[in-house]
Amino acid sequence: MAQFYRPQRGRSKPAEQPIKRNASVSGLDHQGRGIVRESKGVRFIAGALTDELIDFQPQGKWQGKLIQVKQPAPARVTPDCPYYEQCGGCDLQHLALSRQRQHKQQVVSELFAKFAGHDIDCWQAPLTGADWRYRRRLRLACHWDSKRRNFKLGLRQANSKAIVEISDCLISDTALTRLLQPLRKFLPQLDLIAQLGHVELMTTNSCCLLLRLKNPVSAKDHRQLLEFSQNYGVDVWLHCGETAPQPLLAGQELPRYASWQTEVSFQPGDFLQAHGELSPLMVEQALAWLAPGPGDHVLELYAGSGNFSLPIARSGARVTAIEGVPSMVERLTANASRANLSIAAQHADLEQPWQHYDWGTIEFNKVFLDPARAGAAHAISEVAQRQPERVVYVSCAADTLARDARHLFAAGYRLKRAQIVDMFPQTHHIECLTWFERET
Q1: Which of these is catalytic: 142, 169, 396, 432?
Q2: Model confidence over 2-29: pLDDT tens digits?
Q3: Given 11, 137, 287, 381, which is the most exposed site by the fewest CB atoms within 10 A?
């Protein structure tokens, strides 16, 4: 169900704690925050870097607010974004890009040591692409104040529901940011403004605008949206209530994005990798490690609409693709049919025992998985029990990757390759490719 933003009334704030001066930053945590060690524990300070001397104000039990950098680290750089101090999107622009990548690799290594009990000694150089203007999907928060007739559209402030009204976003494609000011002016003219939950922009082979609403739009709004669509060359999609997103124009084709040696159709609102340039390169690298071919039976888990499924099937391997969202299984099936590929796409809850499903008893020799941030806690134990010769795991959450890797290590697998994919430059978010091989 959509959640609609309502600003909270003022609350009394706790008394501010005295500023701690000349504190030494000993490292960064997995969220890119500076770590200050005190006699009573640690403090996590956003914006601080390793080996810096800072003043900070304690907040809560474990947090702190950076007041001043007394002695900056050599890796500190000046953020290019004018909204950096307020916006909650990027959080590592103050750290040189090469050090961002080193930090992300170190985070994965530390979490493997902590949760999986293994060191990583097989790192491959990071897979990189554009550092700026790489985002092809931008979700915007909005709020309509009916009394003041005031509309806010932008990104959430860090650790707050407040909205920062941006006029640009330096990590987003200009095909998206060009629409910020027109939308800020246009949307308040519509009857739907009072029920607008959020706005999402995406660009692949076409530019799409997705509006999250409680109810269908009026005929008047429909006409105005159609005019906006034509004037700005953007396809409008409406996500009303609990129904699936629908195009403003009946019969509108689904947008498509490039995977490796193929294209994938998707519905606005589906998962879409943020970095348009790196996504097909990551698929290519993952397939090089998986090495599928005729004679292989690949089980793919969390398959989505086919970003990896279609390239795997092109190799001639037999592919059984499992996905938890029924509508995405339908799109995967349609994408495979359009590409003349044979893929057995199935809907299943991978957190349930596999013996409930027909495909759960089929033999396979290779596994590929790309779960959400929650990882694959149950699925990975099912995989480990079946002892496939090779597992390639793509992760966007290093902590759950390390937790799941522990099951593979316990089942006799070794980590053969690991690689950071810098899908989210200027932020602490980590994408990681891993290749596990069964010991013989």
Answers
A1: 396
A2: 444 455 555 566 678 899 999 999 999 9
A3: 11
